[in-house]
Amino acid sequence: MHIEQIYTGCLAQGAYYISSAGEAAIIDPLRDTTPYLRRAEKDGVKIKYIFETHFHADFVSGHLDLQKETGAPIIYGPGADPAFEAIIATDGQEFKIGDVTIKVLHTPGHTLESVTYLLKDEEGKDHAIFSGDTLFLGDVGRPDLAQKMDGITKEDLAGMLYDSLTKKIMPLADDIIVYPAHGAGSACGKNMMKETVDTLGHQKEINYALNQPDKAHFIKAVTDGLLPPPEYFPANVLMNKQGYKSMDEVLKKGLMALSPADFEQAANDTRAMILDTRDNGDFAQGFVPRSVNIGLRGDFAPWVGALIGDVSQPILLVSNPGTETEVIERLSRVGFDNVIGYLNGSFEAWKNAGKSIDIINRIPAEQFAAELKDDTTVIDVRKESEYNAEHVSDAYNKPLGDISHWLKDLDHNKHFYIHCAGGYRSMIAASILQMHGYRNFSEVAGGFNAINKTNVPVTDFVCQSRVFKQ
């Protein structure tokens, strides 16, 4: 028996490859299926089953493309209603993969069809659980994503989740290995650990959700503090349930190399969003006007999903030469299939063609420190938890994820400074602000990490102390 966790950091997502005696199974595959096919070919095994723990909201699964390429059936838990052929398993149903067995445990709560897959080894001993979004390390799945169904509230789902955990998961042995679908950084939970594998016994000890005294306390604990889900989540659920274009179709459409003139014409004709995936430092020095910068070398796909929202939005790409395929594949992971072309030769071609360009007023942290006064407006676009840990004294916390709500309240006539932790998120914010007509700001290079090395006073939220660095 061989188990491999195939973890994708930018999505904080874990897919799983299990092989035994010439057969294999894939659990919660990503849309780009090549890694699974290569592993099976290398091992000389046949992919027998494709298991889905639920209808995912935060990414588009690779189940359909993988099924077409391998012929393996797709398996869902009780109550699932996909628009394509699949095996809808019953609670307790077992599937053989070589000499090992996977048992279906119906664990509703995150969604109604959610399941946990229990792996039994060659001797029939319980070995591991693939818990999907039912149980994370340090957390459990959020119970508010499926609440739009008639008569079901997030409290109802949280109660179901409590029953699933206490009746199906907690009675299992402490030495069982837990393989979750997500880790820290995913929007599917609020308190996940950075580790991606643990024992059930350790989770019983340290997971806050598993240590509530009763159902009522559990419901309150898991529903408190939930942030609104990203706008693209419902679209991803529909794609996972109803189907989607093949990756080949998406790539064929998106890999359309456009000259600067054709790129400009396409932007005017389609009202496409111009997405610049270059490094934020390169972007600041020059870009196609009205571009949004979301760097490929970062949490690219989740930020695209959170900030663009509408998966049908036409997109034109400005990317480093040679990265176009990767960009399109990573966009497709979160359902953004409508890339209609890319700027051939990237920004250099645009500049060499004599087209108009724009820049961001990026300043070093030392200049920010020299210009800072008592009445200076500073906007910190980090998450609230980061801001609470430590921030520039008197700065306003305006998280990037909420920019569509707070940008309209900015004063066009008063200068302000904007920063994040290191420059990735603040450049995204700067590009969005500039696209909406705001020019009265300076973005701080290096973000709080650089600011914290200057003499700028900072505040620890916990004790509200002002710390002055010499």
Detailed description of the structure:
By secondary structure, this protein is an alpha/beta fold. The chain has 3 domains: 2-234, Metallo-beta-lactamase, Chain A (4-Layer Sandwich), CATH 3.60.15; 245-352, 3-Layer(aba) Sandwich (Oxidized Rhodanese, domain 1), CATH 3.40.250.10; 362-467, Rhodanese-like domain (Oxidized Rhodanese, domain 1), CATH 3.40.250. It has 17 helices and 25 strands. The strands form 5 sheets. A 6-stranded mixed beta sheet has the order 1-2-3-4-5-6, with helices on one face. The protein has a 6-stranded mixed beta sheet with strand order 7-8-9-10-11-12. A 5-stranded parallel beta sheet has the order 13-17-16-14-15. It is globular. The protein starts with a strand and ends with a strand.
Q: Give the percentage of residues in beta strands.
A: 15-25%
User: Unreliable stretches, pLDDT < 50, 5 or more residues?
Assistant: 463-470
CATH superfamily annotation of the largest domain: Ribonuclease Z/Hydroxyacylglutathione hydrolase-like
| CATH architecture call of the largest domain | 4-Layer Sandwich
Radius of gyration: 24 Å
Sheet with most strands: 6 strands, mixed
Output the CATH class name of the largest domain. Alpha Beta
Tally of domains: 3
- Mean pLDDT across residues: 94
Secondary structure class reads alpha/beta
User: Whole-Å distance between the termini?
Assistant: 59 Å
Shape: globular
- Main β-sheet, spatial strand arrangement: 1-2-3-4-5-6
The name CATH uses for the topology of the largest domain is Metallo-beta-lactamase, Chain A
The number of E-state strands comes to: 25
Report the total helices: 17
Helix content: 25-40%
